[in-house]
Amino acid sequence: MQQEIIAEVLAGNDVLALLPTGGGKSICYQVPAMQMQGLCLVVSPLIALMLDQVQNLEQRGIKAMAIHSGMKPKEVDVALDNAIFGGYKFLYVSPERLLTDFFINRATRIPVNLIAVDEAHCISEWGYDFRPPYLQIAEIRKYYPAVPILALTASATTEVQEDIKNKLIFGREAKEFRQSFDRSNLIYGVVNHEDKKTKLLDVLTKVKGSGIIYTRTRRATVEVSNYLTKNGLKSAAYHAGMPPDERKQKQEKWKSGEVPLIVSTNAFGMGIDKPDVRIVAHYDIPDNLEAYYQEAGRGGRDGKKAYAVAFVSSKDLESIEKNLEGSFPTLNDVRNTYHALGNYLQIPLEGGLGESYDFEMGDFVKAFQLHPLKAFNALKILENYGYISMSHGVEDTSQLMFTTDHETLYRFEIAHPQFEPVIKTILRSYSGSMDVYVKINEDTLAKRLFQPVKEVILQLKELHKMQYLSYKPRKSKPQIMLIMERQPKENILSSDASLHTQIKIKKQKLSSILQYAIAKTKCRNRLILEYFGEDAPLHCGHCDYCIRRKAEEEKRNIIHEKIIASLKEKQNVLMDDFVKNISTDNITVLEVIRHLQDNGMVKIESNKISLA
Contact, 62 vs 92, CB < 8 A? Predict the structure, then answer.
């Protein structure tokens, strides 16, 4: 549907596009944006995906940049000036940055040709990842009244689709394109067993090729990976708490096939283009079908057969719902967590706006004796409602920009000759560093200067301190940014009504994933398609239920034929003897006999069976 979507965007119409994971959503805004004057404004909540997209575009010689929560005010300032004057084609912006004074003050001067809203389901309270800052996106339309909006998502129920169009104030000529949620090459299955590790090993041994195993906790990624490796399956653990270099190394080894299996939290997979994933196994199921569908959809993007298998024990089913109740914070919990966060980051009241801070979750909950899961969920609520923004140590390269003019810099070099080599090497190596932030590599700089890396970093930090350049080292620690200045805790969330609504929605969604996990008498594919409001055939023919049903049907047919053949040879046989001679599966034999009796094909008299 990409071509049709692109045509409607070029015609100036608002468009809602539902394309499954791996369906090529980015092409739908990149192609029309390249054909029009100006730049495409892309709103996305995923920093890692934004940086990945920017890198991919830059590799193709297309000017693109991102403004996200991990950036300092000065960096945002420079980036927006470049959006106006720098001839950029794509500007990626996180939703919380969109309606800041920085952006609004320049909005009418940024030559926007298209507004693309990625992960558009985040705008709906009924979406599985509702983010209130998304509700403000429509406000930006008044600055670009003639610019169309393209809303993109991989998973949205019918209710959420309508919500997206209403919240983004779609025009009369708006169009909607929706690919089927049916992935015919993806074989869904659920393994209900108490010993999940053994069953996981058994399944992974049978499915050859690349795979992703999702777990709920960081600890589980390491435990499961060690278990698989110990039992002869090469795997690696991956989670957001690992240093960026280690994550990158593991990701590359997995992408190349050197390590076929990666065991990860849901921090892995977004934006990763690997078409030949043969299995996506959920050692722990997520809290909703949208997340499950999206994660499972990372398998089989090459169109070949792939498996999506969820492993569920009775203990899981008991604990998931219990955890939802026990870990969902009250209004008081949220306010106390916010207050503790301000103290932890040492931010004064009415301070911290737009600043980004290093943040260690474990250290934070320990310092203030908080319940870890409640504190994490409280921070997510604070993020969703636009008070803070969290990023998980997203890997990005170091950046710098000179903050003075050439003449002042020249005079500084004469007065401080010890800095002359590093300044000259930067100017020669990174063109544009006098005007914009440029990405640098400290190791490369050190080699060109014949100096230790530590010495070069010290010089850069000193120049930053002296305000001759702005140096932003690559950060590996998670970051928290205040979207608004620190508030008194009693001002946080006007009431707990919104929290009650959120837990109600979460319970409804949890119920759907639990029904999927325990279903014994319904096609898995049909369960998913119906959830997303799509008509579905009674049986897909290839999920675990349909395969089991087909095998049972074949077995019943064989028993049926054997019963008829036996009765043709000998009539009036005692039921007990007859059943034993037909099959060891007495229950199925009796079911088939009952069916034949109901249809008038056999008769039973005095505990003897014969043809009717």
Answer: no
Q: Is 47 exposed, middle or buried (0-12, 13-18, 19+ CB in 10 A)?
A: buried
Place of tokens 């401080």: 416
Pairing of strands 149-153, 15-18: parallel
Give the pair of three-digit tokens for residue 391: 């990023």
pLDDT in tens, 338-349: 999 999 999 999
Q: Which CATH superfamily hosts domain 2-178?
A: P-loop containing nucleotide triphosphate hydrolases (3.40.50.300)
Q: How far is CA 271 from the centre of its chain?
A: 8
Q: How far apart are CA 428 and CA 20, in angstroms?
A: 45
Tokens of 372: 């870890």
Tokens 């932003």 locate to: 472
Residue 347 is given by DSSP the state P
544-611 has which fold?
A: Arc Repressor Mutant, subunit A (1.10.10)
Nearest-angstrom CA–CA distance, 201 and 379: 36
204 is written with which tokens? 């992974």
Q: Centre a 10 Å sphere on the Cβ of residue 198 and count the other Cβ atoms it contains.
A: 12
- The answer to whether 200 touches 281, Cβ cutoff 8 Å, is yes
Largest separation between any pair of C-alpha atoms in the chain: 116
CA distance 50 to 73: 19
Which amino acid is present at 460?
L
| Whether the Cβ atoms of residue 473 and residue 457 lie closer than 8 Å to each other | yes
Instruction: Say if residue 220's pLDDT is above 60.
Output: yes
What is residue 179's three-state secondary structure?
coil
Q: pLDDT at position 408, please?
A: 92
| DSSP H helices in 233-371 | 244-256, 289-296, 314-327, 331-344, 361-367
Provide the residue ranges of all domains of the chain, joining segments of one domain with +.
2-178, 186-316+513-531, 331-394+478-495, 398-472, 544-611
SS3 185: coil
Question: Whole-angstrom Cα distance, residue 280 to residue 341?
Answer: 36
3-state SS class at 125 = coil
Tell me the mean pLDDT in the region 213-232: 94
- In three-state form (DSSP H/G/I as H, E/B as E, the rest C), the secondary structure along 183-207 is CCCEEEEEEECCCHHHHHHHHHHHC
Q: What is the mean pLDDT of residues 225-238?
A: 95
Question: How far is 162 from 492, CA to CA, in rounded Å?
Answer: 30
**What is the per-residue pLDDT across 30-76, written as a single tens digit (0 to 9) for each?**
999 999 999 999 999 877 778 888 888 998 999 999 987 667 777 88
Sheet with 479-482, edge to edge strand ranges = 356-358, 479-482, 388-391
562 exposed, middle or buried (CB, 10 Å; 0-12, 13-18, 19+)?
middle
